[in-house]
Structure formats: structure tokens, C-alpha cells
Amino acid sequence: MPILRNDQTIDQLKSEFQETYDSSFAWESAISAHLALPNLVGFWPMSGMGSQSATTDAREISGSELHLTNAGVQFGALSTWPLLPLANFGVGGTDRLYRTDEALFYIAGNEAQLLTSHRGLTMGCWARNTELGTAGHSIIGQWDDSGNDRSYLIYQDSTSGGRTGAYASDNGTNVGSKIVSNSTLGIADDEWHHYVLQWSPSAQDDYIRLWVDGRYWETASVGYASLHNSSANFGIGHSYSSGSPGYHFEGQISMAFLCRARVFDSVIKVLYFRTRSLFQSREKWIT
After folding, report:
1. Which phi and psi (to 5°) does residue 185 adopt?
2. How many folded domains does the chain comprise?
3. Which CATH number covers residue 102?
4. Lowest-confidence segment of 3-7, 90-94, 124-128, 252-256 by average pLDDT
5. Does residue 17 lie within any of the structural domains?
6. What is the DSSP string of 223-285?
């Protein structure tokens, strides 16, 4: 027998119970939700900063201490929704956050200490574009294209009005990807969206997925048993070409994370659902 929804009763209970889509509920749970992700390598909410200098670090707060060096990025919050920490990457500039390669950034996909069902990679953030579709913009990853030192990346290009893609490489040269037009994704300038790259190795479910706002688009049978151990810098708001930074993001980024694990679909959805009221008005919600 179906249970009928009684809106009047729900309204009466609002004073007693907190709504899960209330932005204050999301504000309380945003940090803890990310810190609970399995095999979390790095989490950069953009709330923690280092010394008072032009190169103030973006602090990593999961405990791995992969703090990112700042080159031109400004931290703070927008004067409009959401009023939460973010990194601002200027239009037409070279702003970036980066860290020299080290072992923690390597995602093999066959780590013996992980349950087999969890092996893989999950990486993402909330981002707001101000110049979407005008040029190539890298959001987050470890990637040097001309140097054939590719590993993983979320990237947006200007092809056919703009596309967003999740990319991975098994040897630095090969590229597996899932690329979707921005019109299909339903994204535009001056809007916050939740982007996630999810990769499963060939010994498991064998795919690469691009998640946007709790939905995914997939390329199956990529065939990568492991990912390339890149020596490029890890970067937020840019990637590399023959060792030089480029493809600079224009806009704001918040709540960036990297997991040496294939985080399950249900967890990615919950991460979006639990934080979206901080970033999006309800008319932007898909489900």
C-alpha cells in the first residue's frame, strides 16, 4: 500500500526536524562527508591556508599533508550563494594550484591493501565556470599531454560549443576518456556543478565515467589494468604541456578531492545530494 505524502504535516514538522536539503544541513556535513570517502588521498576544501604570503598554500586536510602551492589564486567566498570557501581562478590569467609529484598521487588500480571491488580512482570537485567553452580548461588532475606523461584529468574544451571530459592513461600516451557536450550535461557559465572522474580497472568493471550532478556518462571496456605513474605536477585549475603549465581554469573551485579507490556509485550520489544545496538553487537539481 503506497504511503501518501502529507505536505502540511511535513511543514508542521520543520520546526522539529532539519530538512536534508537545507543549506545549513549541507554546510554542517560537507567536510565530514568528504573525509569519510574510502582511501582518501587528498581533500582540498579551500578553507585552510598556509603562511600570509603571495604563495599561500591551499591546505590538504585529510592528513596526507599534500598542501598545494599557490600561484595567483585568491581564496575566500563569493558575496552571493554559496557563502563557503573557494579558490578563485581569474579570467585570462595563469592562476593555479600545484604540487610536485610524489608517490601518493600514483593510482595503480591493483593495490593489494584494497578490497578488489574498491580498486580504481575517484576524483572530483565543485566548480563554477566563468568562460565555459571558450578554450581548453583543466579542472583537476595529473596530466602532461605533450610530454606523454598523462595519468588522470577532468578537462573542458571548446569543441562544438564546449565539452567536458574524464580522461585517463595507462602508459602516458594512450588516452581513454568519456567526453560529453556541455549542452547534454546541462551546464553553463556562472553555475556551480559537481564533477567526478571514476575509473575502474580492467580486472574489475573496466570503465571510465564522467559524473556531473549525480549522473554519469560511461565509456566501457577501456582495458586499462593500471594507470600511468606520471611524474608531472598534480594540479588544480590547470594541467601541463611539456612541463609548462597551461589550460588554465577560469572561475571558482571548491571541495576538491582525490581517492585511490573506485568510490561506489551510491557514495558519489550521496556526496552530491548532501552538498548540492550549498552550491545550487533547487531549480538546478536533476533528481
Report:
1. -70, -20
2. 1
3. 2.60.120.200
4. 3-7
5. no
6. --SS-----SPEEES-EEETTEEES---EEEEEEEEESS---HHHHHHHHHHHHHHH--GGG-
Is residue 28 a part of any domain in this protein?
A: no
In a domain, 23, yes or no: no
Residue written as cell 570537485? 125
Neighbour tally for 129: CB within 10 Å: 26
Q: How far apart are CA 117 and CA 115, in angstroms?
A: 5
Does any domain span residue 266?
Answer: yes
Q: Which domain holds residue 242?
A: 40-280
Q: What are phi and psi of 220, to 5 degrees?
A: -90, 160
CA distance 224 to 199: 9
pLDDT, one tens digit per residue, over 73-93 is 999 887 666 668 899 999 999
Are 263 and 197 in contact, with CB atoms under 8 Å apart? no
Tell me the pLDDT tens digit for each residue of 107-116: 999 999 999 9
Evaluate the omega torsion of the peptide bond into residue 85 and state whether it is cis, within 30 degrees of 0: no
Task: Tell me the pLDDT of the chain averaged across its residues.
Answer: 88
For helices 23-35 and 265-279, angle between their N-to-C axes, nearest 10 degrees: 140
